[in-house]
Design brief:
By secondary structure, the chain is mainly beta.
């Protein structure tokens, strides 16, 4: 990790801007999003009774065709923050290059950097990229390389350094071989290296996917880790989804603790003005969605339920009420949000979240995983202005 002076960081941003302008001039596609966010909340634990935050964030993407069948993709995250968002950009702990100025912390992070070689029945992708799997909308057990976080639905999944080779024997059939570098980037012996194979087929109203992955032995898994599972979705009267992944280590019998399984349903009605979604997760303690297995956005409990209802007021305004529930300890994370597209590509949004558990209502000391003591938040409010280009 390298910590930059503020002048060096500004210089890098200027260089990045010049490179982007040159890319646009040469015919490459430049797109992205710029977000301005105001955060306020009431904390507990290590957070003060009142906290605030200001953040300016941009995700800048550049892509284009280098020659016939060969494409290039890249994306950068640029951030300037003060208050609570700045805590995650500490120059001593930031995942990107960062530096502190008088009233803000600035950071830059390489998010994507990859290529794609496309042929009639074959695709080769490599670099810093997302290797996606499964059809889960909320929990995604099969998507263990790029795990989702239901508490941050707008967050882009992090990338991995790896590659895929995808073949298409038929229009409705895909076979993909994938591999990624170990989680520990300083591993010299390949311990933790992961490879696998995925098969996927599509029908008129249903799709099914199966995968197997093997992770090479490293400290704590002397004989490696095996993962296998399947995912399916169907579009009948309702939208149906199921996603199952089992984690197996030969040196120990994990039983149901290696199982992560989700199932969900969604439905839109009244000409699409109303939309509902529900998804259930069984989370084994050694499974892909478990925090104990190394998933930083994973869970500690065993059973979870997510529900959401969205009302489309008109083509420009929508209101959503969602709630993540930990059924094992009766804790909840309800979220109310509203967004309005002021002009094309420019969206204003408001959101409010109140973590709840038994201790909040009965003061009985029974604090849940999603409650205020664990999240350190009693209330969280965000106002965001988002520009897409």
């Amino acid at each position: 990790m390298k910590v930059m002076g503020i002048r060096s960081l500004v210089g890098l941003l200027v260089l990045l801007g010049m490179s982007t302008a040159m890319a646009a001039a040469q015919g490459l596609t430049v797109s992205g999003v710029i977000e301005s966010t105001i955060t306020a909340g009431a904390g507990t634990g290590t957070l003060p009774n009142f906290f605030y935050g200001l953040e300016e964030y941009a995700n800048l993407r550049v892509q284009g065709k280098l020659r016939e069948g060969l494409s290039f993709y890249s994306a950068f995250n640029l951030t300037a923050a003060a208050g609570i968002p700045a805590q995650g950009l500490d120059p001593q702990a930031s995942p990107g290059l960062s530096a502190a100025s008088q009233n803000y912390v600035a950071a830059i992070e390489l998010e994507r950097l990859s290529f794609r070689l496309n042929r009639d029945y074959l695709d080769i992708d490599g670099g810093l990229m997302r290797i996606a799997a499964g059809y889960g909308q909320v929990f995604g057990p099969s998507d263990f390389l790029n795990p989702k976080n239901p508490l941050k639905p707008d967050a882009r999944p992090r990338a991995v350094l790896g590659g895929t080779l995808s073949a298409y024997p038929k229009d409705s059939l895909k076979v993909q071989v994938f591999a990624s570098a170990p989680k520990n980037p300083f591993a010299l012996d390949g311990g933790g290296f992961l490879g696998g194979i995925l098969g996927e087929t599509h029908r008129d109203r249903a799709s099914i996917q199966a995968l197997y992955a093997y992770q090479a032995p490293e400290e704590g898994s002397l004989r490696g880790i095996h993962r296998a599972g399947c995912s399916l979705k169907a579009d009948v009267y309702l939208g149906l989804m199921a996603d199952v992944l089992y984690t197996y280590t030969p040196q120990e019998d994990l039983g149901f603790s290696g199982l992560s399984a989700s199932a969900g349903v969604d439905y839109s009605f009244l000409d699409g003005h109303w939309y509902v979604l529900a998804e259930y997760l069984y989370n084994g303690s050694a499974s892909s969605t478990s925090r104990e297995s190394g998933n930083v956005s994973g869970f500690s409990g065993e059973q979870f339920l997510y529900g959401a209802i969205q009302y489309l007021v008109n083509d420009y305004t929508r209101i959503t009420l969602a709630c993540l529930s930990a059924l094992s300890d009766a804790s909840f994370a309800p979220l109310l949000s509203a967004e309005h597209e002021l002009v094309q590509g420019f969206i204003l949004s408001l959101s409010a979240q109140v973590p709840l558990d038994r201790d909040v209502f009965f003061n009985d000391g029974k604090q849940g995983e999603l409650g205020p003591r664990n999240t350190q938040e009693r209330f969280l409010f965000r106002f965001k202005a988002r520009l897409r280009f």
